[in-house]
Amino acid sequence: MANTQVQPIFILPEGTQRSQGRNAQRMNIMAAKLVAETVRTTLGPKGMDKMIVDSLGDVTITNDGVTILEEMQIEHPSAKMLVEIAKTQEDEVGDGTTTAVVIAGELLKNAEGLLEKNIHPTVIARGYRSAAEKSQEILNKMAENIGENDDVMLSNIAETSMTGKGAEASKDKLSAICVKAVKHIMEKENGKIVIDKENIKLEKKVGGSVEDTELVEGIVLDKERVHSGMPRQIKNAKIALLDSAVEIKNTETDAKIQITDPSKLQEFLDQEERMLRNMVEKVAKSGATVVFCQKGVDDLAQHFFAKKGIYVARRVKKTDMEALERATGGRIVTSLEDLSGTDLGSAGIVEEIKVGDEEMTYVRDCKLPKAVTILIRGGTEHVVDEVKRALDDAIGDLAAALKTGKIVAGAGAPEIELAKGLRKYAESLSGREQLAVQAFAEAIEVIPRTLAENSGLDPIEIITELKSAHDKGQKWAGVDVFAGKVFDAWKAGVIEPLKIKTQAVSSAAEVAVMILRIDDVIAGGSSKNSMPQMPPGMGGMEGMGM
């Protein structure tokens, strides 16, 4: 009798796991939803913080979406895609990371309901894409304009960004600092506003309180003067920026010097001293009273600089040198021979100040600084870190608002207005795509719903009130999480840049569509499992003396 048993055929390495069809979709959606749930409680002015302890025991306390997701070291491939959205949002805008992730999670949750109704994933994907396109149109239509001189609105944007974060207690002072800093580094090219956030240096120093945070119209360096004989303070400083060492160069090739006479040794040493003295003379001749050197400064050269009353700091980071260039108007010089008066930058004052237990160099009162420093203070390392993240977000929001020139109110108002517009758009569609657009509209409402939940309010009651207000034409009706009722977010000064909303919606839609279209997950086995098996009789690894 023939053997009816069929030998299974393995086309994948041993240890490979595979899930297909609905099972694969369910697993992917579940992973993404869990990521969204993790950060969801941090949203809004009453959002809570997360404490993340890494394998080394380092603690991070934050409610910044992207920081939480990065510190969590997520492994699941679909969950990683949501971390990518947060990173994109951070790079593009600097704020709204939690919003983007929460919307993506909700889009997938709603898609799951449609999949259970046997609607094909590509139909849902098509509906989501058209809803995302329409969302951009609706959001742009509802946005208001903002100009660079609208200081009140700019201050409101910064304050809104900081509300609910570690910096909230001092948001009035910090928002003023952020607006001033952004205006300093703002430039115009062909009528367009250009802002490079890298030109605002955020320097952290533990000590004092958050209220002691200050804006320095120039650069603060974590460096001290190299010689105690140098002056601590120099007014009307002329600054030389050197990219070459003030030291005796070693020869490129191996060289051997033989000295037969002791007097020759002295001549040799005298020559070295003369060379260093000439270098210092060259700097002094240019008119420089302060030197920032990217490389080393010889001990003898330090002595000569001190005698001339020149302030010197060495081994300054390349990024700090470039910032000094923008702040002081000087030029980085690679060769001392080329240094002249025209290469020097200027600052009202350069001084060494003790901050906490470290000496720092302040380069302040620059005429038209295109790089500034915000020196962040706080009681502990964790406080300073969280304030830095809050300022990062606020600066990103201000830059986004000024670049696009468009703003919207916050407090969940634009989301309700957007959902209303999408539902109207869904009515113009026919077939199953309409259901996908309606699911998209419902997902957008997760933001005001979460704001209400995180504040201990009844989300159903709040959403109903919001919809009613928007139906009456109150475009900026949002959730007042402190009073527990609906209010006019625009009048209350809860303002956000349009870019936060447009970027969050488009990123969330793109990642949701990508995850929905996956119907097969093939996960390779770990390398130890997929090691080639030894043929029988070879005695395995032991037989090889391992």
Tell me what you see in this structure.
By secondary structure, this protein is an alpha+beta fold. Helix content is 45%, strand content 18%. It contains 16 helices and 21 strands. It has helices spanning 21-40, 65-71, 77-92, 97-116, 121-142, 151-162, 171-185, 262-285, 299-307, 318-328, 381-404, 413-427, 433-444, 446-454, 459-471, 498-516, and strands at residues 17-20, 50-53, 59-62, 144-145, 187-189, 192-194, 200-206, 214-216, 219-221, 233-242, 290-293, 311-313, 332-333, 345-355, 358-364, 372-378, 406-409, 477-480, 485-488, 495-497, 520-523. Strands 9, 10, 11, 12, 13, 14 and 15 form a seven-stranded mixed beta sheet that branches. It has a three-stranded antiparallel beta sheet with strand order 4-17-20. Helix 6 packs across helix 7 (171-185). The two termini are 46 Å apart.
What is the total tally of β strands? 21
SSE-based structural type: alpha+beta
Overall pLDDT confidence = 78
Sheet of most strands: 7 strands, mixed
Total number of domains: 3
What's the gyration radius in Å? 31 Å
Architecture (CATH level 2) name of the largest domain = Orthogonal Bundle
Instruction: State the low-pLDDT regions, or none.
Output: 527-546
Q: Termini distance?
A: 46 Å
> Helical percent range?
40-55%
Quick structural gist:
This protein is of the alpha+beta class and 546 residues long.
